[in-house]
Specification:
Butyryl-Coa Dehydrogenase, subunit A, domain 1, Butyryl-CoA Dehydrogenase, subunit A, domain 2, five-stranded mixed barrel, 19 helices, 11% strand, globular
Length: 595
Amino acid sequence: MAAPILSERDLQFMLYELFDAEALTERPRYSDHSRETFNASIDTGRQIAEKYFIPIRQKVDTDQPTFDGEKVHMIPEIKTAVDAATEAGFVSATADYELGGMQLPPIVASAASAYLTAAGSTTLGYLSLTNANCNLIEAHGTQEQIETWVRPMREGRFAGTMAMTEPGAGSGLADLTTSAVKSDDGSYRVTGSKIFISGGDHELNENIVHLVLARVKGAPKGVKGISLFIVPKFLVNEDGSLGERNDVALAGLFHKMGGRGQTSTALSFGEKDGAVGYLVGEENKGLSYMFHMMNEARIMVGTGAAVMALTGYQYSLHYARERPQGRIPSQKDPNSPPVNIIEHADVRRMLLAQKAFAEGGFALCLLGAQLADDEKTAPTEEERQQAHLLLDFLTPMIKSWPSEYGPEANDLAIQVLGGHGYINEHPVEMFYRDNRLNPIHEGTTGIQSLDLLARKVPMNNLAGYKACLAEIQKTISQAEGGELAAEAAQLTDALATLQKTTESLLGAMMEKPIDLALANSVKYLDMFGHVVIAWLWLKQGLIAQQKLGSDPGFYQGKLQAMRYFFRYELPLIEVWSKVLRDLDSTCLDMQDEWF
């Protein structure tokens, strides 16, 4: 019997017990839906994953895309799988009915897409980036742009990308050099180079719609002078048919350690007369528009990382239950049969750690999906504003925590399989390689940590920070005096440590050189992330404790994973707090010539 891709029981728990997704059907936008339609979409995702993506998983990994100087070539099974997911509606699962969408709540769409991500890894990125591209244009583009570009993307005819990174700028967007000059007809001519553009060229769709950051001639330097343009691979005629090839050229493909189902490209814009581009919104406001897609992509990256951890956990759990090897220390009789390795305490440790990291990280990502929905569809304006505040604050953690600890879970999955873990006859080594990309995708962990500590915490008089702590305190109050009082007390202490550390760092940022105060920002991100994950595990633990009698095996597993996180992981924040409060300068003081 093959290992399950994901735990269907856990998905149901997350959706309906932890987040009460069924209650969303009371909102006007989702009134046509029910728990049955939600589950049907999830089941569709599972069926497509099992039929189209799982059978080609290893082939996608070993047969990377190639470029012959004119076209990209990839195994034909990728198009078959992507087309199946597109036809099932996964390129527009959350979109309006009017645009061909299913109007699913984002949290349900995330659960349904989880099966596709677990089976197809970044191959699903063609659809995910297209959806995010559509969402940006719908939010900031004109009605004409929506009709011209979004509708065919929602139909699956066109694909979408985001083109930001440049060879000389990397994550430093203030230094980008791609330029744009306005033409007499109101369009622009875009010139420059972009690298690491996921899905930047392929033959899966009729057209590719690039969202490109560029600087209009004469614009201010830095991020304040960046504009956003729609730059298609093919121009589109007034009747919607494809026109001539735009001045966008594929300069080459990058071949990554993982995530090989999706092309990673170097693109050249305007080698001849300039690529035709269409301004989104106003000039010099492009970065704020692009953050709409970037923040969505950050949640997407975090979710993908958590899902890869989940599927690696399921595979290694299945293996551990079936692999006989050795005897437990108390078994002295050499004639006794070997036990399955799940009986060994250290294997259980590694499985528990995976469960704690993967299910904790996935809960955080589903929270992000729900908050993204709440800021648009919650019943009151106050609830919508609160959701926006929390989501904006949590986004660096939603992106980074699963991206850091997801690969750690995959590393443990390899260890559980032992020698079978690092050979490609089993997929766990591929899960690790695929997942290792995520700490870099959409802003490295270091960039996210600076965003959290230097921007999100002090922003608006600490409004997001205080809102997050208040939510954690609500759960602590629910747990105090009950079966989980010890965990509530421990989380209270952790919250105090976090507050003490935050106050110390904010004071240092005012009084000390800013480089010193921010030198260890990644440890602050780790610390805050651990507190948030502990909070989400306490929320899960409260439900499990209440329902323990109805499904003892499942709920006891939840409680044990919660205990693991509280006993093995949460205490680490004390070490990180000391480094931060001491303003440790070990890394900052290190000199180039000392290496």
